[in-house]
User: Which sequence fits this backbone?
């Protein structure tokens, strides 16, 4: 069974920078895993932020960026805002099936 | 504007069945891949299934394979999830989502499996 692993929680100060990562139990994450990133706030549906590693949707704030880093997919928030406090999920493709990571709870403090 | 509205959730006994629907509007449904994703109370997102635009290709998570069936009616702009042999661990909010990877999401419908 494929497992996708994220940091359970991270804390960042307003205005700071934080990087969330997404690892696969099958090995290094590459572009053909088509990493996606989602933000979810309490009581709301998830919102897509990043697709295919580093591409932003039209609504994605410029402070969010995606990349591959050290064999993992990564989401970097630069100039963090209080409204960025949320759960963040990565999603990887495995030849047609998809698997979400367990999520990272980001606290802005 | 893309709109996805799920319905059909509710309380069902273990071993029972339920069919979820997702009514789509604001985009060309017949050319869009669609997904179902679920989230148990207080837990993370779990990808469930996806279906190609014409219904010819479907994929499932191992946890639901053989019990759940995804389908669509492009004449009605509607996505379905037939859920059989339901278990307590299937209790979750079920979201439908549009895209090759999920991009646009509905607000979800709650399925509770309990006796």
Assistant:
């Amino acid at each position: 069974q494929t497992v996708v692993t994220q940091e359970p929680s991270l804390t960042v100060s307003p205005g700071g920078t934080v990087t969330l990562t997404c690892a696969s139990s099958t090995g290094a994450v590459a572009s053909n895993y088509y990493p996606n990133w989602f933000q979810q706030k309490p009581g709301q549906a998830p919102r897509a932020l990043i697709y295919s590693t580093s591409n932003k949707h039209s609504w994605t704030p410029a402070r969010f960026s995606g990349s591959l880093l050290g064999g993992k997919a990564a989401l970097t928030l630069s100039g963090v805002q209080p409204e960025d406090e949320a759960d963040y999920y990565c999603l990887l493709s495995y030849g047609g099936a998809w698997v979400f990571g367990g999520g990272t709870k980001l606290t802005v403090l | 504007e893309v709109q996805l509205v799920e319905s059909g959730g509710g309380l069902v006994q273990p071993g029972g069945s339920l069919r979820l629907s997702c009514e789509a509007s604001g985009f060309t449904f017949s050319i869009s891949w669609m997904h179902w994703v679920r989230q148990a109370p207080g837990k993370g997102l779990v990808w469930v299934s996806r279906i190609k635009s014409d219904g010819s290709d479907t994929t499932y998570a191992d946890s639901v394979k053989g019990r759940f069936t995804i389908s669509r009616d492009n004449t009605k702009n509607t996505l379905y999830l037939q859920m059989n042999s339901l278990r307590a661990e299937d209790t979750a909010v079920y979201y439908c989502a549009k895209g090759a990877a999920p991009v646009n999401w509905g607000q979800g419908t709650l399925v509770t499996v309990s006796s």
Q: What stands out?
A: The mean pLDDT of chain A is 97. Residues 33 and 94 of chain A are 6 Å apart (CA to CA). The first strand of chain A starts at residue 4 and ends at 6.
